[in-house]
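Can you give me the bound-state structure? Components:
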Amino acid sequence: MINLNPNIGGSPNSIKGVWEHGSAPSKINADVKKSDFADTVRAVEKHLAKVDDLQQSSDIFIKDLLSGKNEDVISAVSAAAKADMSFKLLVSVRNKLIEAYKQTMNMPL
Amino acid sequence: MEINDTFSPIDIAISGLRAQDKNIKLISSNVANAQTTDSGKGEPYRRLEAVFETDGDGIGGVSLEEIAADMSSFPRVLKPGHPDADEDGYVLMPNVNLPIEMINLNIATRAYQANAAILKRYQQMMETTLELLR
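Here's the bound-state model for the whole set.
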């Protein structure tokens, strides 16, 4: 479900093209589609919905468990573990992005 | 980081927990019915055993393939006053051996703990990976 592509805005082939020796510089620029910070933030936004889905399903499992509707503790544990992992990933990426933004903004011009 | 496919360690560990949960259910059924002379089928309670199989081909979780009945013979015990006794006064008792069930319970509990440990350790490993982002 979680598939956060680190190569946002460029296919792996075009990234590979950058590091290939012997290709002309002008060709490299034509190959690689530049990605900006906004693209990355948008990707995180899309990912946010997936994390939210996992959190919601974990919530439903725990509520059903407490209300006695469902007695499957193991399913609740599984949903909670997945929600926890995806949320931690999201928070880590978000922190990294904020840090990068701050560093850029503090750059002396 | 795929966490929702069937090959992820989380799902495999969860399937292990589920399988051992059912195994423990069977063992408790065996222990509870260790003295049941009438199972409703005209014979004493027959011991049940869990048979597991792998999900998918080769790598994957575990699931309960079938609940197999232990076809070993029932021990005959002399109980002349028992309503289920035959004309010689013998009663067929279930083929449940309590010491065996206790050992199986130990094995099932340890397997359950091992799967829980895998789940916990995998979460720790993912946290270690995320530490690299900091």
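A couple of observations. Chain A is about 70% helix and 0% strand. Residues 73-105 of chain A form the longest helix (33 residues).
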